[in-house]
């Protein structure tokens, strides 16, 4: 997975997956660069090129309720939206199931403090599959370019090297997996 250069094959996957009728128009490179400068980040490829040239979200998936525009938030989050700090590193590098983890020695307050950055640091929200399940693209930190499923019970990275799926990592792998009609967790 190369997050610094858009692979033409990945861009073809993205063009094919996001049908012309459901795409939101791309804002162009100037708008993407302005967004990056405002937030102190460089978006990972091929998501960066997708937003600049292909579409800024889509009414059709992925995920189930559509791909959000850059920096969009699902409507179901209501007023509970924490301030997003995109330049702060996403804190996880492996799965974390925090609900029901009896072996975690931290207090409830310490766990709550550790959860805040999982939901609000170093990632853009791609969309939701409903029931509190959100897909994030990591834009800062060691997992930059990886897609994560984050819900009220835990967080899991997407990609074959992490288990649960046969798909390749990254935005194009995530979109391509969906476009093939496969379930997210097919292992």
UniProtKB/TrEMBL annotation:
Q: Which domain of life is it from?
A: Bacteria
Pfam annotation, one family = SMI1_KNR4
Where is the Knr4/Smi1-like domain positioned along the sequence? 31-150
InterPro entries tied to this protein? Knr4/Smi1-like_dom (IPR018958), Knr4/Smi1-like_sf (IPR037883)
Recorded protein name is Knr4/Smi1-like domain-containing protein
Name the source organism. Actinomadura namibiensis
């Amino acid at each position: 997975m190369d997050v610094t250069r858009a692979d033409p094959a990945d861009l073809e996957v993205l063009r094919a997956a996001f049908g012309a009728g459901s795409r939101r128009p791309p804002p162009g490179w100037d708008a993407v660069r302005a967004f990056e400068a405002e937030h102190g980040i460089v978006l990972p490829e091929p998501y960066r090129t997708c937003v600049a040239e292909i579409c800024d979200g889509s009414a059709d998936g992925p995920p189930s309720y559509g791909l959000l525009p850059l920096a969009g938030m699902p409507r179901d989050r209501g007023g509970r939206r924490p301030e997003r700090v995109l330049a702060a590193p996403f804190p996880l590098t492996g799965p974390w199931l925090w609900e029901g983890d009896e072996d975690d020695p931290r207090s409830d307050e310490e766990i709550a403090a550790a959860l805040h950055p999982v939901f609000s640091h170093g990632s853009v929200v791609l969309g939701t599959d409903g029931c509190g399940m959100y897909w994030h693209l990591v834009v800062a930190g060691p997992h930059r370019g990886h897609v994560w499923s984050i819900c009220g019970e835990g967080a899991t990275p997407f990609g074959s090297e992490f288990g649960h799926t046969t798909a390749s990592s990254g935005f194009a792998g995530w979109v391509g997996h969906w476009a093939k009609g496969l379930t997210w967790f097919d292992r």
